[in-house]
User: What shape does this take?
Amino acid sequence: MFAKKSVVAGAALLAMAAAAQADVKIYGYLDAAFGSYENFVENAAGTAITTERTTRVSSGNMMTSFIGFAGSEDLGGGLKAEFALESFLGVDTGTVNPTYSNLAGGFWGRASWVGLSGGFGRVILGQYDNAFFTLGYTYNPFGSSMTFSPTMVSWYGLSGDVTGAALGYDTGWVNSITYETPNLGGFTASLQFAPKESTGANDGDKNNYALSAAYNAGPLSLMAVYTNSGDASTNTAYFIRQKNFGLGASYDFGVVKLQGQYAQIKSFDSTTGDESEKDKFFQLGATIPVTSAGNVLVTYGQTKYEIAAGQAKLKQFAVGYDHSISKRTGAYVAFTNKKLSGDIAIDDDTANVFAVGIRHSF
Assistant: This one.
């Protein structure tokens, strides 16, 4: 009897030790809103740009809704194994939402990676956020909102004749290997590489590189990013050959946090190698605490495009109020106005969005 109790006690201790070393969690973010939505679209003939308006319930206005699974295991000696799997969700319909991924239909379209971390930093293999996306959501008051952030709308939300040279890759880089340095007195850096993974007839495809450096100390934050990406015939995640760079800065004064960004996006013809399209973007914004639980968000962004049809300009202003009801739940109301002008056929040059929403993280 004593031996049997000792075995049971030993098994329990081993289970407790394993639980202490491994950490697995389910988490996510749910965002649903009701409002009036208007956006620029090409007409059926592809000869003019007009606007379409709908009144609807939508998902992911302030940030894309998703569910995720992540975990880590202590391997000893300061070394950890880590992983993350994240899938986009459409809260309004209850479906897996591939809209935000160029690899449409991929269940884990938001993130899918495994890596090792320690005193040397972090090495990650799989689909992982690109530094340009990190720059985009870090230095504007509306974060990664694909509706209200001028940064996200300019870089990801519009394409083709409407905008010209939007980013030629998704928010996360698939088939990539990423190295992140440890924090050295506030300085961090990262290097990301995604091979073209093509041979033979597609041997002219280009590999993809991303470099970033950041400094964070107290209220000051700075970041710089450079990417060199190539169109890949066998991988729809990298669909335009580009050389891009971006800068971001913010300073928190307490009564207001000021944020700013600048970026240049250059696209090249995949056959001749000549520059084909270019845009120059800037955004200025502020986050203003008005209560202990509420912030006013305001931003203005502008993009100048040099496209095949000539030159164009996109101006966007957004203002909103975000209120935290609890640690995990909040509500918001926001409005944005977009204006498009230039050497393009425009039937209606303005588009407005107004929405009231609820957000919940878990």
Remarks:
- The radius of gyration is 23 Å.
- The longest strand covers residues 22-42.
- Confidence is low (pLDDT under 50) at residues 1-17.
- The chain has three helices and 18 strands.
